[in-house]
Design a protein that fits this description.
Elements lengths: L12 E2 L1 H8 L3 H4 L6 H6 L10 E5 L5 H8 L4 E6 L2 H9 L5 E4 L12 E7 L9 H10 E12 L1 H5 L5 E5 L2 E5 L6 H10 L2 E10 L2 H6 L10 E10 L2
Parallel strand pairs: 1-8, 2-3, 2-5, 3-4, 5-6
Antiparallel strand pairs: 6-10, 7-8, 9-10
Helix pairs in contact: 6-8
């Protein structure tokens, strides 16, 4: 579902490549670890040090790649459609290789990776099925796909993915609402089985950094799912 039917902000909407190409200047100062890293650290079914080869889908500036590297991932490749984000990621020196590509059509070889990770990107996809199919194609049997996303309930509360392209000039990056049933259907069709799920709420840690979000206290804001490639 296009997020526009829920949007309460009414900001101008830009496409993904344009939006992230501009947001890159302030992205890492804007996106909080409470959104994704905290959920990754809460997962119990993933041994982050075990994979020999990892694919970071929609790797952006390399926030998650750097987190993975600190946990012992031997080699990490990254894919993103925004060259400006990849330039920042390249400067972190955590990736074996970086590719400008769509997460649903990476062009990477099949059955290569022990672990695929995607953080905070699924809401920009009109259809989840190509993502889950591509992740399944490049993952070895028995491998994992960990996806962290913007919670549909928070999107449906009217808050889109947005940033300030200039002070007082907020814009929305085109977003879509995917129910958890959409994830399950797409994942099962691609041969994945669910191993674990976590959800994050707007809590005291969030409100210390975003006190204006008091109205969202207790509302789910992000989620993490761990899928296993059963082949």
């Amino acid at each position: 579902m296009d997020h526009s039917i829920y949007d309460k902000r009414g900001y101008p909407v830009v496409d993904v490549r344009e939006g992230y190409g501009e947001w890159v200047r302030t992205y890492e100062q804007t996106v909080l670890d409470e959104m994704d890293v905290r959920l990754l650290e809460a997962l119990r079914t993933v041994d982050w040090a075990a994979p020999r080869l990892v694919l970071d889908l929609a790797c952006g500036t390399g926030r998650i790649g750097a987190w993975l590297k600190r946990r012992g991932s031997a080699a990490i490749d990254g894919v993103d459609i925004t060259p400006e984000m990849l330039e920042v990621g390249r400067g972190k020196d955590v990736y074996r290789a970086l590719h400008v590509a769509d997460v649903a059509r990476t062009g990477l070889p099949a059955e290569t990776y022990d672990l695929c990770v995607q953080s905070l990107a699924d809401e920009h996809l009109a259809d989840l099925r190509p993502l889950y199919l591509e992740a399944a194609r490049v993952t070895r049997r028995g491998g994992l796909f960990v996806i962290v996303g913007f919670h549909p309930q928070f999107l449906m509360a009217g808050v889109p993915t947005h940033f300030d392209r200039a002070p007082g000039e907020p814009v929305t990056i085109r977003s879509y609402v995917h129910l958890f049933s959409d994830h399950v259907k797409a994942a099962h069709a691609a041969g994945w089985s669910l191993r674990e799920m976590e959800e994050g709420l707007v809590d005291e840690a969030w409100l210390r950094k975003k006190p204006r979000w008091e109205a969202y206290r207790g509302v789910p804001i992000s989620f993490a799912m761990v899928w296993r490639a059963d082949g």
